[in-house]
Amino acid sequence: MDLSRRHFLEAGFGLGVAGSLGACVSPGSASGAAGMPDWHLGYQNAPPAGFDPSPMRLAFGAVPADLKGSFYRNGPAQMQYGDQYASHWFDGDGLIHRIAIEDGQAVHQARFVETKKRREEQAAGKFLSPGFGTLGDESYSVEGPDDVNAANTSVLVVNGELLALWEAGSAFAMDAETLETRGPKTWREDLKGMPFLAHPKVEPDGRVWNLAVGGDRVGIYRIAKTGELEDFGMVNIGRAAYIHDWTMTARHLIILVQPWINENLRPPVVAGFEWQPQHGLQMLIVDKDDFSNQRWAQAPARMFFHTGSAWEESDGTIKFDVVLYREPVLGVGGGAAEIRGEWTERSANEKGILTQIVIPVQGDAKLIETGIMGEFPQVDPRYRGQSRRLTALCTAPSRQRPGQTALTVHDWGSGQSDTFNFGESRMVEEFLFVPKSGSSKESESWLIGTVLNLKSEVSEVCVFDAARVSDGPVCILQADYSWPLGFHGTWA
Ligand SMILES: [Fe+2]
Question: What is the pLDDT of residue 10?
Answer without folding.
Answer: 58
